[in-house]
Amino acid sequence: MAHAELTAQALAAHSVPGYVPQHGADGGECVAVLHETPVIVRYVLTMVGRDERAEVEQISINGAAIPAAYFDADTVAELGHDCERSRFGAGL
After folding, report:
1. pTM for this structure?
2. How do 64-67 and 51-61 pair as beta strands?
3. Is the dihedral of CA 87, 42, 58, 32 positive or negative?
4. Span 28-87, pLDDT tens digits
5. Which of 49, 59, 61, 85 is most solvent-facing, going by the fewest CB within 10 Å?
6. Predicted pLDDT of residue 48
7. b/e string for 2-26 if b means 16 or more Cβ within 10 A?
8. Contact by Cβ (8 Å): 92, 81
9. DSSP structure string for 33-76
């Protein structure tokens, strides 16, 4: 699925017109896919050695924000990687 299509689906699902991924120095949020469902992932940045990692805090599904602790570790890790790729795509 193309990123623009994914973003459009997430916007429709979350009723967030004009949404743009938010990336800052401490974290942010991005659009990702969870089992073919577009979600908005909120994360904070942490340091692991010399590497910066996106640590997922919340996953918003159809407008409901769910703490990351309710999801399995592999899913949370993959969504964190999606946020890292989104940050890289934004030039950060």
Report:
1. 0.76
2. antiparallel
3. negative
4. 988 888 887 888 899 999 988 888 899 999 999 887 899 999 999 999 999 999 889 888
5. 49
6. 83
7. eeeeebebbbebbeeeeeebebeee
8. no
9. EETTEEEEEEEEEEEETTEEEEEEEEEEETTEEEEGGGS-HHHH
Place of tokens 């790729």: 85
Structure token pair of residue 85: 């790729």
Tokens matching residue 29: 């949020």
Token pair 């999801």 is found at 71
pLDDT of residue 47: 85
Six token digits for residue 9? 């689906």
Assign 4 to helix, strand or coil. Answer: helix
Q: Which two tokens stand for residue 66?
A: 């769910």
Give the model's confidence band at 18: pLDDT under 50 very low, under 70 low, under 90 confident, else very high: low
